[in-house]
Each structure stands twice: as structure tokens, then as C-alpha cells.
Amino acid sequence: MKISTLVLLSGLFASSQAFAGIAKVSKAEASSTYTEEGNYNASRVMDGKQGTSWVEGEDGSGLGSWVELTLDGEQTLSGIRVWGGDWYSEEYWSRANRPKDLEITFSDGSTEKVTLEDAFKPQVFTFSKPVKTTTVKIKIKSVHAGSTWFDTGISEVQLLTPTKNPLDTFTASASSEAPADGDGSYVARNVGDAIGDSLWCEGSEGDGTGEWIQLDYGKSVDVSSMTLINGMASTFPLWMKGNRATGATLTFSDGSTHDVTIANSIKPQTITFPKTTTSSVKVTFTGVAKGKEYNDLCLAELRFD
Ligand SMILES: [Ca+2]
Ligand SMILES: [Ca+2]
User: Fold this and answer.
1) How many angstroms separate the alpha carbon of residue 251 from the centre of ligand 1?
2) Which residues, other chains included, contact 36 with Cβ-Cβ below 8 Å and sequence gap of 6+?
């Protein structure tokens, strides 16, 4: 399943960025940008997609290069989630440099240092203490060397905010998961990362009808709406190739159920239902619109409020 970055739908994932627990970023600037081919602008670290990256344009490995995020006003940050390297594909990731040590500087001049493992996975770091800031400057201090290319990139950064909303934290499980490939994994938890091109895809023989995904909160919560991004929503051509949900039954922890209709749309959608107190919601798909190429049902994002 090729996650192409060639066709971008600007604004598509804006609502993902607004999910609670992740700070809103208004712009990104960088010390330099790789310009020989492709688009590796600084804004690519904040576009809600793991398959697009900022890459520095210095000679050599780009040590000392930085990308600076300007927040939408002053916000309190508790940590950072980083997709280091060029996540266009796992092959690209291994061929280009990945950042290792990062120095993070806030608007008050204070700093945090984090060290990334050399692994094709998002990495979360909790700051030594919460910090109020209007900017976050991320400087590359050392790298894990690529096999072919010696420029260093960062595909995505999420700035994490302290949250007391119990609906922000959940574990996800599913009836099946498609196996990982060169574009990454298709595990259930990909619906909860606010990243539009990380997908849960079921891995059954059929078209996805009868398959399910479940979110568990570990405590009682009140829910009355479901927000989702339906299908392989990375790009419109890819979305057309994969299966999309058209209906589902929601099952709550007391065994009660509610049937919903899901729009066959690539846009984020919110579906409301009667307020229910539950510790989990299981979404069992009852209708599927078939894609042109892949017979897997996928969701890019899913949450309840
Ligand atoms: Ca990106
Ligand atoms: Ca996702």
C-alpha cells in the first residue's frame, strides 16, 4: 500500500491537529531546506502526516540545523512526539540521516535534550517539567547516519499538552490488523495519533464487514459523538483504492448498542448519538464501500467525545 505524497489535500487533517492533548502550531521555520527535488519545507513537520518531512539543506550532515515551531499563542507543554528521519517510506528512512540528539529551546531560553533511538517509529519524550512557551526550536546535535543520503530530516513533531480529559487517553484493539509493509504498520492504535496517513487496516479475507475496532478508556466516561477519518485517507487516489465504512454498530461496555451511518467521505466527520456512560466503545462495521484495488477496510483516525 503505497502512501504517496504526490497528491496533497491541503487542510484535510486540520481537525486532527486540533485534537486535545496536542498543541496547535501556527507556523514552522527552518535554518535551511533541501530544495533539489521534492518539497521538504519546514511546514512539513506540522502537516499531520508522517509521510512528509522537513529536510535540511546544508552541506554535510546538517549538524546545528534547526526547525522552529511557533505556537498558536502561549501554551503549556509537557512533552514532544517526534517522527525522526524521512518517513516517505521505510526505505527512504534508512537511506537518509535520522536525527539522534536534539536540543529543544523554548521562548524563555530554557532547554531540554532528547536522544532518539534509531528506530522507524514515533518516539515520545516527557519534559523534565511542564513549560509555558510560544516557540519551540528543535536543533539537530547528532545523527544516525543514512546508507545513501547525508541530509537529515524530521517528518513530524507533535507538541504534547497536559490533559485531564479522560477521552484523550485510550488503548485500541481490533478484530484483525493488516501486516506492516514498507509504508509502516496498520495497527489499531494508529487511529489515535492525530496523523492522517497512519492507518488501521483490518487484515481479514473479506471486505471488512463484521470486522471491529474497540477503544478502551480504563474508566467510565460519557460519550455522545464519534469523530473519524474514513478509509486510506493519506491521499485521494489512495483513498479511492481502499475500502471505506458506510455503517457500524457501536457496542458499549454495558452491552447496549447504537447503529450509525458513516459517510463515504475522505473528510473528517462527526456522528452524534445519545449520551452514554461506558468504559469502552466497540465499532463493528456493518456496511462497506469497495475500493478499486485493495480489499481492506481502513480508518485513519477515530475518537469519541
Ligand atoms: Ca509531516
Ligand atoms: Ca492515524
Assistant:
1) 34
2) none
- Sequence letter at residue 77: L
- pLDDT of 266-284, one tens digit each? 999 999 999 999 999 999 9
Grid coordinates of 159: 507538541
Residue 54 Cα to ligand 1 midpoint, Å, equals 7
pTM over 0.90: no
**Please, what is the Cα angle at 205 between 200 and 210, to 5 degrees?**
65
- Where exactly are the structural domains of the chain? 21-160, 166-304
- What's 166-304's CATH class? mainly beta
C-alpha cell at 116: 532518539
C-alpha 265/C-alpha 245 separation (Å) is: 9
Give 86's contacts (C-beta < 8 A, 6+ positions apart).
Answer: 53, 55, 92, 93, 95, 96, 153, 155
Amino acid (1-letter code) at residue 25: V
> In the structure grid, which three cell numbers stand for residue 266, read together?
475522505
Q: What is the pLDDT of residues 46-57, one digit of tens each?
A: 999 999 999 999
**Cα 43 to ligand 1 centre (Å):** 8
The top-level CATH class assigned to 21-160 is mainly beta
